[in-house]
Design brief:
Elements lengths: L1 H53 L4 H9 L3 H10 L2 H30 L6 H30 L1 H18 L1 H18 L9 H12 L5 H12 L5 H4 L1 E2 L6 E2 L4 H11 L3 E5 L6 E6 H4 L19 E3 L4 H11 L3 E5 L5 E6 H9 L9 H4 E3 L4 E5 L4 H8 L7 H4 L5 H9 L8 E4 L2 E9 L2 E9 L6
Helix pairs in contact: 1-4, 1-5, 1-6, 3-6, 4-5, 4-7, 5-6, 8-9
């Protein structure tokens, strides 16, 4: 009898252990499925938000990303270089993730729902649950957030999209190729895509007969104003005059008088270490003193990147009530300076005062011959000779000045009196100092109609 009771007890105990083990295994599976669903919802939120964020970025936002030295910024810029590939990757990845969410959620609900439910009821519950999750976490929340924080969302999603691009590259490439083929066969050109040259021509037709040449140039300057960067208008480092930090007050006064500028950068050791800006008017109350701690008059320097748009810089000048900024390159070194006057000249043309030496900058011999300084910016050269600002875009490369343009065309350093030609333009080097092209004669030849 005891043996029989013992055997029955062991059977009951084994049954209990098996049931408990099955429950633990089921609970473990449920937990894993919940974690998978949450991760998939996060992925679909990232892709959906990224679609809204990336394709709502303006040209200013993209230019801002290019000025940042963060890995996510570089990844975002790389993705935006091929927008069709980016969109295809987002759509393909989003569809794959949504399908995975549907399958995983169905398996999870089968374990969570009571076994006594009818097939129709269970099916309806699954549809409602999956639709709710996809709409809320895959559409509404991420897109609302991306609309209000497109830059932050773009940077956050950049590493994820970079990985997804590598994974889905074959499928995305096939989609892009197929859509390009369809566009070639049945697509039509959007008539609203009007180039800047068309706008300039329209300005000539509409106001050219009633406005003066200066007024027409102002209209054109306004048109191009939003696409000009600081690097295109700044005064380069070699042409910047600064004051060393360790000079005495009397030396500072003499140097300020000699330079003749109202604002000057003060540097330690070199221009790469600008300590502040000194205003000449701040020195006037102490002009009778021989000794004075002039460093207390220094104002904080305002630093900007050379790729910044001058339209944005103008707004910052207005908000901060400053007229002077130090331009730095990607390595943090000083590239040059830019002033409010430089910005305004892009619209209204050159501003001359009694201290400007016009002959050293630009001299018109006749309608076809000009003497121009080598450091003159290419945009200014085009404006001075009455040519479109993009006349030399095909050959200017990375150069911004007339001297750099000549080096790009020639491919070597020219000698004095050597002529370099491009289309109907002849550039004759007149003066070279310390391996810098100082003065150039520009000749515009007659175009042969034949």
């Amino acid at each position: 009898m005891n043996l029989q009771n013992t055997a029955e007890g062991e059977t009951i105990l084994n049954t209990i252990l098996l049931q408990a083990g099955s429950g633990v295994f089921s609970a473990s599976n449920t937990t894993i499925l919940i974690i998978i669903v949450l991760l998939l919802l996060l992925m679909t939120a990232i892709t959906a938000g990224a679609e809204t964020a990336y394709f709502s970025l303006t040209a200013k936002d993209i230019n801002y990303l290019k000025t940042k030295d963060q890995q996510s910024s570089r990844q975002a810029v790389n993705l935006l270089e091929n927008p069709k590939m980016l969109l295809a990757t987002i759509l393909v990845a989003n569809n794959f993730i949504n399908i995975a969410i549907i399958v995983t959620t169905n398996v999870l609900l089968k374990q969570l729902l009571p076994s006594g439910l009818s097939t129709t009821t269970a099916f309806l519950i699954q549809i409602v649950a999956v639709t709710f999750l996809l709409v809320l976490f895959g559409e509404v929340l991420p897109k609302v957030y991306a609309t209000q924080n497109n830059m932050r969302m773009a940077l956050f999603a950049a590493p994820v999209l970079q990985i997804l691009t590598s994974i889905f590259k074959p499928v995305s490439k096939m989609l892009v190729s197929s859509t390009s083929y369809i566009e070639e066969k049945i697509g039509t050109r959007n008539p609203s895509n009007i180039s800047s040259e068309d706008f300039e021509h329209a300005i000539e037709l509409t106001v050219g007969h009633t406005a003066t040449r200066e007024e027409v140039n102002i209209f054109k300057g306004i048109l191009k104003f939003g696409n000009i960067t600081v690097r295109q208008i700044m005064r380069t480092r070699l042409d910047v005059s600064g004051i060393p930090y360790d000079l005495s007050f009397r030396q500072v006064q003499l140097q300020a008088v000699e330079m003749g500028y109202s604002r000057m950068p003060v540097y330690k050791e070199s221009l790469d270490k600008v300590a502040g800006i000194i205003h000449t008017k701040d020195l006037l109350p102490y002009s009778e003193l021989d000794e004075f701690e002039w460093h207390t008059l220094l104002r904080p320097a305002y630093f900007i990147h050379e790729g910044k748009l001058i339209e944005d810089l103008l707004k910052e000048f207005q908000q901060k009530r400053i007229h002077f900024a130090v331009v730095v390159d990607e390595f943090g070194g000083t590239s040059g300076i830019v002033t409010l006057e430089d910005i305004m000249e892009e619209i209204i043309g050159d501003i001359k005062d009694e201290f400007d030496e016009e002959d050293l900058h630009f001299k018109k011999i006749d309608d076809h011959n000009f003497i121009i300084e080598g450091k003159t910016l290419t945009n200014d050269v085009c404006r001075l000779i009455g040519e479109p600002s993009d006349t030399f875009d095909m050959v200017r490369g990375e150069s911004d000045s007339l001297a750099g343009l000549i080096l790009e065309i020639s491919g070597k350093f020219p000698a004095v009196n050597e002529t370099v030609s491009y289309e109907q333009f002849d550039f004759t080097v007149l003066q070279i100092e310390r391996m810098r092209i100082q003065r150039v004669k520009l000749t515009i030849n007659e175009i042969d109609e034949d």
